[in-house]
Amino acid sequence: MTDGHRPRREVITGPRRDVRRRTRRSAVEDIDQQTRVGVVYVRALIRTQLLLGLSTVAVVVVPLAALPLLFGLVPGVRALQVGPLPLWWLLLGFLVYPAILGVGWWYIRHAERNEEQFTDLVEGR
Amino acid sequence: MNTAAVIAGMTATVVATIVLAGFSSRVARTTGDFYVAARSVPAWWNASAISGEYLSAASFLGVAGLIMVGGADAVWFPVGYAVGYVLLLALVSAPLRRSGAYTLPDFCEARLRSSAVRLAASVLVVVIGWLYVVPQLQGAGRALQTILGTPIWLGGVLVALTVLVVIVGGGMRSVTLVQGFQYWLKLVAIMVPALFLLAAWRLDGGPSALVDEVPTFRVETTVAVGTDIVVTVDDPVRVQADGTIDGVLASGEVDLPQGTHSIDSGTTITFPAGAAVPHLSTTPATTGAAWGQPLQGEQSHPMYRTYALMIALFLGTMGLPHVLVRFYTNPDGRQARRTALIVIGLVGLFYLSPSVFGMLGRVYTPELLMTGQTDAVVLLLPQALVGGTLGQALTALVCAGAAAAFLATATGLTVTVAGVLSQDVVSRWVRDPIRSFRVAAVAAVLAPLVLSLLASALPLAQAVALAFTVAAATFCPMLLLGIWWPRLTDAGAAAGLVVGGTLAVCAITASTAMPDLTGWPDALLAQPAAWAMPLALATMVGVSRATRHRLHPGVDRMMIRLHTPETARLHPAWTAKGRR
Question: How far is B59 from chain A (nearest CA, A)?
């Protein structure tokens, strides 16, 4: 920009914030006014989160619940040892704790991803 | 013996607790501070506080004791205590925090808009709280009696007094600080001794607990009998005795023939090395090999008992009022989830150690199987296995941890019960909320103290499992349906709470009142969670469907509030505090 020339015309790039805000607000209003769409959004979120929660619980509980049956019905398993420790004690005395920590971490990642998707949806991004 | 170490360890914890509480009580001045620490606690510190509060004497002392007696089947106790948090994390934590309620009764009222359900929930909070506190107080009495020989009431009274000082001083804010500290104290106090014990055990040649014979005294052992006991001797043995055996005064060498013998309190008996340990006549002798295998117990229907215990512990955790109240101190739902995840890590880390005590206890302190004081194995093992100055230092450490365990849970539960009593009962007469809370706190300590002196005592971890059972049969279905099923009505929830609570409490009472039951009746009454919880759930669903007209019109808004992330910008009125 030098003296004597007309100021260069500025071209505005990037998203038009006013437009975006307007659409976002309208989606949020869906829920605020409990229009059908709003309730459908939240019901869908609840379903997704419930499915995720139940899957998490199943991943932990089903293997644990199988252990008494396995050890009760298949006597050969009882004799299994890992080093000085019987398999039962290794699994339930030690390994179960890092395992459930890992499953919990996995759950949080997915639960937060679901919530971010929901937020994006209702805010019209 | 190591009286000084015991007293030093326990006194240190009590003094530190009171000083910390006094320090933070200067900050706690508003009603909000008292109840939920003004919701400004970071996730990791809140998680430490939850773990500190959760790891009661049942975990610190009781789990090792139960493993020492019950072996492979008893590992379900620590596993269940930890796995419960996975269910809490995945199904309850974030929505509960987003509900914006202070306590469980508050949640009931907010979700169902019914003061009747609120009242039922309040009663249950008090029942579960006291079911949980009574064994803590009894356990404190027995622990002090076992290691110091004090009268059985003293431990409970000391715990109750300390709890009162802490709570009346500062409310939840001081409790949060104190309990975060107590988690780390308990972790160090069980893990460090466990590592030293393992090292000492290796140096000793690593004698296995899993041998194919019943426990024997490794060295000449003098057993001081603290309560009257009846024991069974399988191998005749000649002992040095001083006291009363089978009603006869004994002094000097005595032959104990095969059969059952009653031994009076105050008797000391010295067994020679290599003698088989007599066992309580109520619990059969098990070889180390059988002890290490699951489903080998003498009780009927071990498979049913295992699954019922799993149901009670997995589902009961999410219904414990003193744990849930802490989720309101998180700033938002995401932080509530993080808190629950950190708790899984902290609690799991703690539970690595009790099995070590349980296993080594069978080898080095087998006399506890004879006296029935297996809850004391954590306290006595360091001296028995390590000995010397190091043994005394470790004893002081485990005693400090045990004191923290008694105090932490009793404090947390008392705060919760006092909060409910204060809001729903005392505030009718006492206007000032802080004074009302203090009055309620006194009542919330004294009542379980009296009960603890009157009621008979079960092993710690088993007694605490009863509180989990009631929680699993009541609050668990109420929370699951309340959070995930919009059509739960107030009538459905109330009916389910009453059915589940009544069934669980009656079954437990019947089971303790009739100790001679055997077979299925015994198994079903001793472990009612497996049938009481599904019945309560079915009642809630059934009655809700029959009372559809009672659904309140705001239920959709409530569901949105429970499940919408705070980051989604909804109308501010929806997330406003106190909005119903």
Answer: 14
